[in-house]
Amino acid sequence: MTRDYDQFPDNDNGNVLWQMVEDGNELNEPHEVEFSIVFEKQEQVEKCALHLLHQEQKISLFQEEVHSDGSDLWVLNIHVNMILEYEDIEDLEEWMTKIAKEFNGEYDGWGCMSYIYDEDE
C-alpha cells in the first residue's frame, strides 16, 4: 500500500495514523482516543474537569507521583470514541489546546489502543 499524503500528511498525526495502518489497524473502526491535558495544581484540573463534564465529555484524571522537588502534575484525559481520521484528530487537538489554555494547563497529546483484526477469526 502506498501512503496517501492527503489522507496521512507528513507530520506527527499523519505519521502516527499511517503507522497504525501499516501495523494492520482498521482506522474506519471506532477507537477510544485519549487526549491529555496536564496541570500543575489540583484546583486547575478540577475546574477543567467540571467544565468538560458539563459538556458531556467522558474524562478521567489522576495525580502523577510527587517528584523529589515536591512538584507534581495532574493529568486529565478526555476519552473520545471515534473513527480515526486526520482532520478530526487535528480539530480535536485544536479544541483541547484551547481548553488547556483556558484553565492554565498544557495540552499533552493523544493516544489510543491499537486493534489488529485477524481475518481468520
From TrEMBL:
Residue stretches making up the Regulator of ribonuclease activity B domain: 11-112
The name this protein goes by in its record: Regulator of ribonuclease activity B domain-containing protein
Pfam families (UniProt xref): RraB (PF06877)
Domain of life: Bacteria
Organism: Acinetobacter higginsii
SUPFAM superfamilies for this protein: Hypothetical protein VC0424
